[in-house]
Amino acid sequence: DDPDWGFASLGERLGKAVSGFVYGALGVSVFGLLDTLEDLHELDDQAATQDAVRNVLALPWGGPLVIGAGLMVAAVGIGNMVRAVVSHFTGSLACEDGVAWCAGTLARVGYFSRGVAMTLAGAITALAGWNARASDARGVGGALEMLRDVPFGHLFLGLIALGLIAFGAFGVMKAGLRRIGV
User: What Rg, from alpha-carbon coordinates, does the chain have?
Assistant: First the structure.
């Protein structure tokens, strides 16, 4: 079954390709973290995350709100990891079995890595709400930064980076191979 190449299909494929390239670039940027981990705590996005958490903590019920937001992010991350194990990613692709196997493998690795990063960031945010300390809050970059201090942290960062690159590659493959309008 050949994929549809009509105007609407091309637009959807372009969107999927852009998404794939963005995730691929995100994965490549995680490799950059291996060289710049010491400077991450100074990044504007971490300061913005802490400012946002500080503002929410100042609200009535701010702690539970931050905990809830963190748990929601962590739940999405866990959902991505579960999806990596149970989902079939190639049913909508018009390709041969070998290409479908490659695409499915990239999707599984990518979804799992994305889930790990999101779960870690969500858990850290929930803990910041629990402790009512905005200074504990981290975005995904800050959460990944914390991995450097655990045994084999650089290895974990490298694996997450490879997984995010795999997710990007799957997005690009899906953009070109997806059956649209079926």
Answer: 19
Beta carbons within 8 Å of 49's beta carbon, 6+ residues apart: 137, 138, 139, 142
Measured CA to CA in angstroms, residue 110 lies from 7, 21, 40, 130 at distances of 29, 13, 23, 30
pTM for the model: 0.68
Position 108 confidence tier, pLDDT thresholds 50, 70, 90: very high
Residue among 76, 115, 125, 103 nearest 170 (CA): 103
Using an 8 Å Cβ cutoff, are 15 and 180 in contact? no
> What are residue 90's phi and psi, to 5 degrees?
-110, 0
**Residue 136: how many other CB atoms lie within 10 Å:** 17
Place of tokens 């969500």: 122
In whole angstroms, what is the distance from residue 157 CA to residue 168 CA?
Answer: 17
Cα–Cα distance between 48 and 134 in angstroms, integer? 11
User: Please, which pLDDT band fits residue 130 given cuts at 50, 70 and 90?
Assistant: confident
Determine how many CB atoms are found less than 10 A away from the CB of residue 49: 23
Compute how many other C-beta atoms are within 10 angstroms of the C-beta atom of residue 78.
15
